[in-house]
Write the structure tokens for this entry.
Amino acid sequence: AWARSDVIEAGIRADSLWQRMLSEPMLQPDKITMNATIKSWARAFDPVKAEETLNFVLDLYEEGHLEDNDNNVSMKPDAISYSTVITAWAKSNHSDKTANARRLLDTMLQKHEEGEDNMKPNIISFTAVIN
């Protein structure tokens, strides 16, 4: 619900629940939870926090702290994760929003060229940078 909320503190509340899930062994978060948290920050007009969440998860995944869950759904950030952060930057009031959105798009393109099929930029990725 927080990911679809227009309440400005939605990002804070979603992140609080996300952090609790990460600290509780019985509450294993998944990619949907991760992307919902990123989207909550994006809707709260906080692209910095959205990107921090993306980078936090990426670091955990690369360090081996986020194993595939019981449904074999990887927690590795994907095109949806990156596109959400790109859109957050594009819609923000930050003076460097275009550069940040483009930087993330370039990262997606590079990762996809290196063989990560789940990183193929989509129409949302490109449109957010163009707009």
